[in-house]
Amino acid sequence: MTQKRKPALAQELAWYETNKKAWLGAHRGKFVLVSDETVAGFFSSYEDALQAGLQTFGVSAEFLIKQVVEQEPVFVIY
Amino acid sequence: MDGPRYSRSYSRLELRRSGPKIKVTIVHPVAAQNAAKHEHVHLKKAFTVTALIDTGASRTVINPQVATTCGLRQTGVVRISGAGQITDRPEFAGSILFPDSGLSGFDPLPLVACPLPEQDVSCLIGRDVLERWNFTYDGRSGQVEIEE
Q1: pTM (2 decimals)?
Q2: pLDDT, mean of residues B9-23
Q3: Which of A1, A75, B117, B122 could make a disulfide contact with B49, Cβ separation 3.0–4.6 Å?
């Protein structure tokens, strides 16, 4: 039987959804950095979060960078 | 303003038909390149493609093949409305350079991967980049100008 591959960052996204409500209070608008179920911090910019992610987890590890917002924005592209 | 300036002339018909295009190079962010060097990890090379400057796109988008070719790191998922439907698409950490134009690149720039309908366009330059430029589209003369 073939095993279905888990989508990238599925665990991190689930962890984000679980904790989003709690984070909105103190970290609204910040960029959270998550790997597995570990939060490495909240940052003012995507750039800072990326830098911290590479330093903390290394270049080969998966990590999620997500802006903490109440409602997910929908970006129109075409 | 006296920043770098890029201009290109088209025929009126060409500009109307295909839109303003620019050559872009998609590459890993400098921070990732430095981390890879430090950890002795090999990263895939930069990839140069044609981009359409698209005032209708709120984000800069690349074809998924571009992300694969460059081996970009996925850092998230974003919700995209395109072609009449809303879908979740992967977001990658990249950098964008504008070779042979004199324009400065943007590093890092989160890039959304989404299949693009036009065969010769592998990137849409969206308003996340346009907000940093003065962009002039003169449909009568066919002149397109970008000023930093």
Answers
A1: 0.94
A2: 96
A3: B122
| Spatial distance between the Cα atoms of B72 and B86, rounded to a whole number of angstroms | 23
User: With left for phi above 0 and alpha for psi between -120 and 50, is residue A9 left, alpha or beta?
Assistant: left
In this complex, the residue of A50, A60, A75 whose CB is nearest that of residue B108 is A50
Q: How many CB pairs under 8 A join A and B?
A: 84
**What gap in Å lies between CA A25 and CA B92, rounded to an integer?**
27
| Count of CB atoms situated within 10 Å of the CB of A42 | 18
- Sheet strands (E) in chain B: 5-9, 21-27, 47-53, 61-62, 73-82, 85-98, 103-113, 123-125, 134-138, 143-147
ipTM of this complex = 0.91
Cα of A35 to nearest chain B Cα, Å:
10
